[in-house]
Design goal:
Elements: E1 20-26, H1 29-38, E2 43-49, E3 52-57, E4 63-65, E5 69-70, H2 71-82, E6 85-92, E7 96-103, E8 114-120, H3 143-149, H4 156-164, H5 174-185, E9 211-213, H6 219-234
Antiparallel strand pairs: 1-3, 1-6, 2-3, 2-9, 4-5, 6-7, 7-8
Helix pairs in contact: 3-4, 4-5
Length: about 240
């Protein structure tokens, strides 16, 4: 697997690595920015990159928007509101990769977006005491749906192979797997360097190309309101 730098050195077999999460949205940035403002999202909105915009949540887990909204819930809302494809990716401590996706292009605005399927690189993290679970990836069979939704159906087999591989946690990071998946799907790859935010992102956009939203507000108001909401959201159970 070929990777780009991840916001700082990582030592295989050493301490747990970075956690980060984001949404890949197939649509126009202005419309997306307006929607995220309404939803009081906290995080960064990247530049338009071909048909995609990458949105990085300030908090990798928990509440990311108003009303106690979790990242996956926000992904469903964005897909439905914009009638488009949205893919959510989350890496926990560089040891676990989660993917969820939705396709609302054929919806009439009233139905829920069609799920592309959920992927989890290690199901034992959900139930560590369940002796019947194995640390093998689940959901790799949904790779063709993701490839089709991203307009690269010919990449389905390669994506499936990457997602199905059982990695050695002592020597390979999940950011490496994610980087390979993003490359194959033609999605912005700089999410794996998102821990460098708010500075320029290695192999990604410069700080001036990013919009920061603090509880849906930009600039100084966003920094002030965002700081308050950050404290409150950490105490709230995500929906």
């Amino acid at each position: 697997m070929t990777t780009i730098p991840i916001g700082g050195p990582q030592v295989p077999g050493g301490p747990d690595g970075h956690s980060y999460a984001g949404l890949f949205v197939n649509g126009e940035r202005d419309a997306l920015l307006g929607l995220l403002t309404q939803r009081r999202f906290s995080g960064w909105v990247g530049p338009q990159e071909d048909d995609w915009v990458l949105v990085v949540a300030e908090q990798a887990t928990g509440v990311v928007a108003g009303g106690g909204t979790a990242l996956t819930t926000l992904g469903v809302e964005v897909a439905q509101a914009l009638g488009t494809v949205v893919i959510a990716a989350r890496v926990d401590r560089d040891r676990v990769l989660r993917l969820d996706g939705w396709d609302a292009r054929d919806d009439d605005g009233h139905d829920d977006p069609e799920p592309l399927g959920s992927y989890l690189s290690d199901p034992t993290v959900e139930a560590p005491d369940d002796e019947d679970l194995w640390p093998e990836p689940v959901g790799a069979e949904f790779a063709p749906r993701y490839a089709e939704a991203c307009g690269v159906p010919d990449a389905a087999d390669e994506v499936t192979e990457v997602l199905a591989e059982e990695l050695d946690a002592e020597s390979v990071l999940e950011s490496e797997r994610l980087d390979s998946v993003l490359r194959l799907l033609g999605l912005p790859r700089w999410l794996i360097s998102a821990t460098s935010l708010p500075r320029d992102v290695p192999a990604g956009p410069r700080r001036s190309e990013l919009a920061w939203l603090g509880a849906g507000r930009e600039g100084v108001p966003g920094r002030v309101v965002g700081a308050v909401s950050r404290v409150l959201r950490k105490r709230r159970r995500p929906l």
